[in-house]
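hey can u check if this looks right to u? its 197 residues, i copy pasted from the old doc so theres a chance i mangled smth
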Amino acid sequence: MNVPDVFIGSTDDAYTFVVLNRPIRGANSLLTGAGFTARKINDRTVYLLPPTTSEEANEQAGIAMYGLSARTLDVVDLSWTTRWSPQVPRPDPGIRFTLTSTTFQATATTEVARLVLEQHGFARSADGPSYQPATPLGMAHLLGAVVRAEAHAHAYGITVRVDLGISTPDAIPAPAPRPSATVPGRRGAEPAPRRSR
């Protein structure tokens, strides 16, 4: 979550959160004006929406992202709460990504879902039904592959869930130091691709 300028995610207990990885002019008023509450967690300002319907979370996040898009396009949205309401039973996802600071895994439940993963550079693990990147990827490229695979899956009507391994807002990790400069052409130097709302 430390790669893009703006990262949107969900905790396991259905909070929607936004973290900013660089100062963005007016971001605080945009996010709080859209209904997010600013809270300091592990030395990081986190903007939170409590559990609500997916329609409300999607609308509030959409309002905030519309305003922020005038200041940056480096946005990654991997929240499940803006798609599924915590008040209703969630469908079993056709693709599930588990993405934490130390682990990555993707699983697929149908042949079409497996083909989507393979088209986006994921290969079946030798030890079972899960998928990993076919070649080692830096975090920026891994986020990009997940975002593209998720958008592709949605185009086929395949439900996707991204688990970030964050049980509650208090478990959102502290920010990692950002590199002072990137080396052009170095793997992982590019910004992460973003998903449009």
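The first helix runs from residue 27 to 33.
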